[in-house]
Amino acid sequence: MRIAFIADALDFQYAGIHIYTREILKALVAVDTENEYIVLRGKSGKKIEGTEEIIVPVNPNIPIHKQLRIFTDIPRALVKVGADVVVEPRHLGPFNLPKQIRRVTVLHDLTPILFPDYHVLSSQILHRHLLPHVLRRTDHIITVSEHTRRDMVVRFPFVEKKSTAILLGRDESFVPKNEVSVLEKYGIRQPYFLYVGTLEPRKNLGVLVAAYNAFRKKSGLNYQLVLVGKKGWKINDLLKKIRQSPFQKDIILTGYVAREELPVLYTMSEIFVYPSLYEGFGLPVLEAMSCGACVITSEVSSLPEVGGGAAVYFDPNSAEQLADLMLKLTSNQPSLNVLSEKSLTQAQLFCWEKTARETLAVLTALAVT
């Protein structure tokens, strides 16, 4: 069986979908000796060993050609390479394929439909009009959490019998690591609270800043708040809240941090706080736990699936509740030690090999139906 992945995320996206595409391909090649894997991407990059790479280039002279290729160039390439099954990790596709090519769509979350205000207008329109069509036409849908699958079934009941939740795996490079020079590079001193992810409204960082302000006032402790990640859209309101904070000098915005440095930031943090309003999975929580970080996260969406009994949860609409948890935990070092051990244990439940074997079972079943 020739299994093709539409892997534009490897070249044009650097967050969750990029990580998923890279890691699931590496894991599938490692566990599957019977099938062939074809990677369709927009430009040549670091090749995934054991795959056949097909470049479907983007023409810079054609407006939005990167997006248009999903309707034209990519379907033609899939037919040409003789794909039996095609996987689209970005969920908007594939289109215009002959019926004999089975289709698998990976859905990471439904935020463009459930929370349209968190997305630009073009994304809202695309998802509103294209996603129902994609979900009807695809042969199977893989979601990255059971919560996302339930959300999808509520919105689109016709998908229930052709959908499977398959949790993501743990990146084995995320292990406890202490390296003071990394902290010095970004002007970080211990102790500090840490957030990792894009700085955008859905991540609810205004509540985190408010909770941090309350923590500092009530505790009198000189903690820093470190926000790691690229600035996303609608960032001005968060920046205003940071400027207005009486502890502004202790709020560190690092910008993008290389993946090899992230384990250090997770490990050496006092508490990792992830206050997101909605997540399809929540990879930073798993990364933090893999490094033994103590985790406080929202009690909503898929986050309890990831954190299990190792994380401490709060209502993401309550800065007061979050501040109280920050105060309670920082005043009890034995509790922090217990949470750290629980994090390491919980992280071991997530494995890309398991993700790959469950994914392969879906792909294999399609080939015989």
Main sheet properties: 7 strands, parallel
> Whole-Å distance between the termini?
13 Å
For CATH, the homologous superfamily of the largest domain is named as: Glycogen Phosphorylase B
Radius of gyration: 21 Å
Strand content: 15-25%
CATH class of the largest domain: Alpha Beta
Considering the chains and any ligands shown, give keywords for the structure.
Rossmann fold, seven-stranded parallel sheet, 369 residues, six-stranded parallel sheet, alpha/beta
What's the topology here?
Elements lengths: L1 E5 L2 H4 L3 H16 L4 E6 L10 E4 L9 H4 L4 H8 L4 E4 L13 E6 L3 H4 L6 H17 L2 E4 L2 H10 L7 E3 L14 H6 L6 E5 L8 H15 L4 E5 L7 H9 L6 E5 L6 H7 L2 E4 L8 H8 L4 E4 L4 H5 L4 E3 L4 H12 L2 H15 L4 H16 L2
Describe, in plain words, how this protein is organized in 3D:
- With 369 residues, the protein is of the alpha/beta class.
- It has two domains: 2-169 and 351-367, Rossmann fold (3-Layer(aba) Sandwich); 180-347, 3-Layer(aba) Sandwich (Rossmann fold), CATH 3.40.50.2000.
- The chain contains 16 helices and 13 strands.
- The protein has helices at 9-12, 16-31, 65-68, 73-80, 111-114, 121-137, 146-155, 180-185, 205-219, 236-244, 262-268, 283-290, 303-307, 319-330, 333-347, 352-367; strands spanning 2-6, 36-41, 52-55, 85-88, 102-107, 140-143, 163-165, 192-196, 224-228, 251-255, 271-274, 295-298, 312-314.
- The strands form two sheets. It has a seven-stranded parallel sheet, with helices on both faces. A six-stranded parallel sheet has the order 10-9-8-11-12-13, sandwiched between helices.
- The model has no long low-confidence stretch (mean pLDDT 93).
